[in-house]
Amino acid sequence: MPIEKSQRFPGEPLQADPPTDLRDNDRHARISPVTGWLIFVIVCTGILLRLSFFEPEIARSPDERTYTRQANVLLEQGVSGLRMLGEELVRNPTEFGMAPSPVRVGYLGILAGYMGITGDRTILAGARLSLLASIATLILVAFATCRHLSPIAAVIAVLFYAVLPFELMTGRRAWQEAVISLLATALIVLAIELPKMHGPPRLGAYCAFIIGGILSLTTKENIGIAFLLCTTGLLGAAILRKDRATVVGAAVSLGAVILVTAAILAFLFDGLGKYVTLQRIAENVSAMNVYDQTYSVGPAWMLPAAIVRVCPLVAVGALAGMTIAIYHAVKARSLSEAGLPFALAGYCIVLLLVQVVSQRMNLRYTAPIYSSLCMLAGAGCGWITVQFHRMMRPLGSPLAWGILSVVLGVAALRDVNFARDYLLNTGMQDLALRPVLGEPPAQPAASNPR
Length: 450
Description:
By secondary structure, the chain is mainly alpha-helical. The chain has 20 helices and no strands. The N and C termini lie far apart (58 Å). The chain has helices spanning 33-53, 62-77, 79-91, 93-96, 105-118, 123-148, 151-162, 165-170, 177-193, 199-217, 221-241, 244-268, 272-287, 290-295, 302-310, 312-332, 340-358, 370-391, 397-423, 433-437. Helix 16 (312-332) packs across helix 17 (340-358). The protein has one domain (5-437).
């Protein structure tokens, strides 16, 4: 049945019929010039915030120094250097297992490549790479929301991501999280765009999806799971639409990613058996990591509570977006009419549950859903904004929009101030759960140093 304007969920495009799959209908909401310029200003503001908060002289964490050393070894010694790092882990797992594992070659390859291009071999190379990745992700979020969310939801989603404290933190650190956030956002956008592409652009998009998948599976477990979720969504949407071409393309892409990744890892570590051995050592030692046992564990409620503390309106908006998307799917009694917000809701819920179940609730590990949370929050807050605007109609539309804009602006300013005062000070060198919440450290089960 056609959807009346008053019934539309602001997280969905304005269209005559409900969306039919993971991607929304081809008839996207038209972004007016005023809305386009507003989003452009917000993106520029987000870029300026990232540049202004970038400080070369801040204290660097052990992980940042480890990534820098590993990338330099890869750049100088190539494959033999990676194997040497693997042998270090085998010989002394207690010492080297507490640091980031050398099997995360996807990120190390990107960082080594950046070092080779820029000539910068210092720890700042990783920090500047994160800055560029964060800016690129912001631009990608603006592109995706303008095409697949309503104008109101797009503006709010881009605003939330421009000031997201997690991104302002990871965008100046020599960690892999900013690159992971970019990879996850790119995979989501490709999964949305691929079904409606044709000819050479579609072939190029599949190649990009395969490359993104290989980088994901060779970088970290959380972004590997994100790739599998995106592929599952792409396949599921194509099956619901009976789009055989996309089903075949997604299946071939998944197979290609798995085979190429296995071949790369076998070559780099002198056999898949040795790679699996290194991975097991890293996982076993990581499970006994006293740092994580002290700062990144707790009851399940602590993870959403930490997100609420850092960016409360994003959390409320994301919850509203999830609730409305699930309600629409249940009401329609068909996943084919669930739309993009439902897909984002499932994606975020699964990755949050993975953290809770694994008891590794460092908010750095939430990087694959940073952009998805903001897009979902844009959809949810877009719906809430429309409802408040209707209630305030007696005041006049311009005044109502002015008041709502001020509220959103104050919320954005609050997030920036929280990031500056709590996350970006030199004493905060991680996004571990308990320090973010202001909770005391837990009692570790072991006494090994990190």
